[in-house]
Design goal:
Oligomer: single chain
Helix content: 25-40%
Radius of gyration: 18 Å
Number of domains: 1
Distance between the termini: 41 Å
Strand content: 15-25%
CATH superfamily: Vaccinia Virus protein VP39
CATH topology: Rossmann fold
Shape: globular
CATH class: Alpha Beta
Bound molecules: S-adenosylmethionine
Structural class: alpha/beta
Largest sheet: 8 strands, mixed
């Protein structure tokens, strides 16, 4: 496991995923009854962006300037994007970040924790030993949060269905393994077998369109519940960028949540573009009835 999210924190992919996470969680909270949020690949929880250019041995070009950096001072952001930017800025200030540039960026665990209510519960899985220790230190004092040293896919089997009988799962792997899409299809199938109404969000990179289309074909063979994908392309297919975009696949989405995604799907592609031919779209793979 060589992947460290540290070098990617606050990049365009984090912006897309973390921004869309907000309406998903709020959608789950339309009901008073609490729910379990399971983050299967949680990372270290918080990131110091000033360290992002220092690799283990190599100097790196930080990615956050073309991600969160593009939004931090942007005028007239739509409501959802502006809420996300405020949440990150508040986190930065609370950590002691001063000045106009954000230094401390929250990962999915902190973004989620900031939105959860007393009746909701957060379970975080992280396999990398150093990231896991950092994550445990981050959440040691937090009520309603547990940190597991567990394979995120195993956690799905171990934790679903939860006592609350309501759950949302975020699957955000590092895609170091060649068979990651196969593992996701198995995990999603298992989660839905255990809990047919579970809401699942899966982040994936858009490096090769064909690989992603195969993933959808495989998923559709399992007869999944209503699901859509929200994709951001920061450049066109012919761009030399390795990662040209990313997507968030959502299964069993909260009712009509796509309306709440719309402002981000419309505004972020222009703000985050790194070349021509990009864009944003939301496509239903299986429609709600
Ligand atoms: C993309 S990062 C997670 C970022 C985080 N979700 C966020 O948005 O802030 C993926 C993380 O998964 C961890 N990881 C990789 N394979 C794992 C597995 N099978 N189970 C749990 N964690 C894993 C990696 O160490 C890495 O920290």
């Amino acid at each position: 496991m060589n992947y460290r999210h540290q070098f990617h924190a606050g990049n365009f992919a984090d912006v897309w995923k973390h921004c869309l996470l907000i309406p998903l969680i709020r959608g789950m909270q339309r009901k008073d009854k609490g729910f379990l949020f399971l983050d299967t690949h949680a990372g270290r929880g918080a990131y110091d962006l000033s360290a992002a250019a220092r690799g283990d041995s190599l100097e790196r070009t930080p990615e956050h300037p073309d991600g969160f950096g593009r939004l931090s001072a942007a005028p007239n952001l739509p409501g959802l994007v502006s809420e996300y930017v405020s949440l990150v800025k508040e986190f930065n200030w609370a950590r002691g970040g001063a000045g106009t540039e954000v230094r401390y960026y929250p990962g999915s665990p902190w973004i989620t924790q900031k939105l959860l209510r007393d009746q909701d519960r957060l379970a975080l899985c992280e396999l990398h030993p150093e990231e896991n220790s950092a994550l445990k230190a981050e959440f040691a004092q937090e009520r309603g949060v547990s940190v597991q040293t567990l394979d995120g896919y195993t956690a799905i089997r171990a934790m679903l269905p939860p006592l609350e009988k309501r759950a949302m799962v975020l699957i955000d792997p590092s895609f170091e393994e060649k068979d990651e899409f196969d593992r996701i299809v198995s995990a999603v199938t298992e989660a839905l077998r255990r809990m047919p109404a579970v809401t699942i969000a899966v982040w994936y990179p858009l490096t090769q369109r064909a690989g992603v289309d195969r993933f959808f074909d495989q998923l559709l063979l399992t007869n999944p519940p209503p699901c859509f994908t929200a994709e951001l392309m920061v450049a066109g297919e012919d761009s030399s960028l390795k990662m040209k975009g990313c997507g968030l696949l959502v299964l069993n989405p909260p009712w009509q949540i796509e309306r709440e995604f719309a402002p981000a799907v419309e505004a972020l592609p222009g703000l985050l573009a790194q070349g021509t031919g990009g864009g944003g779209r939301l496509v239903w793979l299986v429609r709600e009835k």
